[in-house]
Automatic annotation (TrEMBL):
Keywords: GTP-binding, Nucleotide-binding. Residues 369-417 are annotated as: Disordered. One of its GO terms (cellular component) is cell cortex. Belongs to the TRAFAC class TrmE-Era-EngA-EngB-Septin-like GTPase superfamily. Septin GTPase family. This is Septin-type G domain-containing protein.
Length: 417
């Protein structure tokens, strides 16, 4: 379980190498996703949506999935952060397509890893793009979760660590916010949505970790306030939203949970989110995918599921070996093709070399003949006159061959003899 007490060795390694982290932000249009991302990265990494002309307002744009990379440094650790924004989510009358698009994106990243793992020769430039956390921006209605929110979180939480947040939380008064947070958590519990809830083990974990995680859990869903503007307070620039009645400070824990969430995502819980993604969510996907391909594979051996529909671990292992064997066979074939191609090219080169040797031999014979008769051959005469006019390439020798090439051919002949 993560927290301040999590592995010192892992941290030392992270400081040295830097870490990669991927965050997906989902929420309806106008919930403050772009402002949040730019506040988180302290730089405008995502552009705001351009205003839509009235005559276009009725058109559905569909969802876009836009990843951006940004390099950050947190407590001396370099973080290569990928933020994936999903403009257009929830804007449709029927949102089925947008759910599937996001799910497809998450699963494609798992598929890429699965394919890479079964390769014999790893691609050194392979990039693991699995999403480690999904921030779901709940619209600050002040009521409770809507069907759209429940459906999205329920469907996606088996594939990604879902962290619910309330966007633009400064639109609610403190008591409204408390009531809203409570109702959202009641809904999450009622519908048994397995969101990321800062897990800890009361028996195993140290006190500090338990304390930190239970405090974060109590803050859920995090109240977010974002601002790309800075305001000067007592001569210090602070990030805040200015209203006629005062300031809402982004980093002030009395005003928003932004700082606690940022710290959890990029520092204290980054490793835990990555480990859960790899050890649990990806493993689950992998098992499901392999068992699906076993059941659907009519040509192969009978890997049929157990009576209760589950697949036996031995079958899983066999399937895994079989996939590796297939991969091996494919790579062997590719190697054989490569060898054949190289042999063919070698034979062609040898032919070429022999032809050139022939030309060279003729040339040498003609030169020898010309020397004994005392007159240069006609070709040489012509080129010598070009040389006098400065038009001949300095590397050209009689016969039109480059000097280097002729030397090369000569060496080749000597080797052959
Ligand atoms: N009150 C308040 N307004 C905010 C906050 N964050 C953003 N806004 C404002 O809300 C509007 C929409 O913010 P965006 O960050 O563009 O929202 P978005 O979710 O990216 O919207 P789309 O890109 O259209 O999907 C802008 O006018 C922001 O200035 C916040 O924390 N509180
Ligand atoms: Mg936006």
């Amino acid at each position: 379980m993560a927290g301040p007490g999590s592995s010192f060795a892992a941290r030392r390694k992270a400081v040295k190498k830097g870490v990669q982290f991927t965050l997906l932000v989902v929420g309806q249009s106008g919930t403050g996703r772009t402002t949040f991302v730019n506040t988180l990265c302290e730089t405008p990494v995502i552009a705001h949506k351009a205003p839509v002309a009235p005559e276009m307002a009725h058109l559905e744009d569909g969802i876009k999935i836009n990843p951006v990379n940004v390099e950050l440094e947190e407590d001396g650790v370099r973080i290569s952060l990928t933020v994936v924004d999903t403009p257009g989510f929830g804007d449709q009358i029927d949102n089925e397509f947008t759910f599937n698009e996001i799910m497809g994106y998450l699963e494609r990243q798992y598929d890429d890893i699965l394919a890479e793992e079964s390769r014999i020769k790893r691609n050194p430039r392979f990039r693991d793009n699995r999403v480690h956390a999904l921030l779901y921006f709940i619209t600050p209605t002040g009521h409770a979760l809507r069907e759209l929110d429940i459906e999205l979180m329920r469907r996606l939480s088996p594939r990604v660590n879902v962290i619910p947040v309330i966007g633009k939380s400064d639109t609610l008064t403190p008591s409204e916010l408390q009531g809203f947070k409570r109702r959202v958590m009641e809904d999450i519990e009622h519908y048994s949505i397995p969101v990321y809830n800062f897990p800890y083990d009361a028996e195993e974990d140290d006190e500090e970790t338990i304390q930190d995680n239970s405090e974060l859990r109590a803050l859920m869903p995090f109240a977010i306030v974002g601002s790309e503007d800075e305001v000067e307070v007592n001569g210090e620039p602070i990030r805040a939203r200015r209203y006629p009645w005062g300031l809402v400070e982004v980093d002030n824990p009395q005003h928003s949970d932004f700082q606690r969430l940022r710290n959890a995502l990029l520092s204290t819980h980054l490793t835990d989110l990555k480990e859960i993604t790899h050890d649990h969510l990806y493993e689950m996907y992998r098992t499901e995918k392999l068992s699906r391909s076993m059941v659907g594979d009519a040509g192969g051996p009978d890997y049929s599921a157990d009576q209760d529909g589950s697949v036996l671990p031995e079958d899983m292992a066999t399937q895994s070996v079989r996939l590796k064997e297939d991969q091996l066979r494919r790579e062997e074939q590719q190697l054989r093709d490569l060898e054949l191609r190289s042999q063919r090219e070698l034979a062609e080169k040898r032919q070429e070399l022999l032809a050139r040797e022939e030309v060279l031999r003729n040339l040498e014979a003609r030169l020898a003949q010309a020397q004994t008769s005392g007159t240069p051959p006609p070709q040489q005469q012509q080129q010598l006159s070009m040389s006098q006019h400065g038009a001949m390439h300095p590397n050209l020798t009689p016969g039109g061959y480059a000097a280097e090439e002729q030397q090369h051919l000569h060496n080749g002949m000597q080797q052959q003899h």
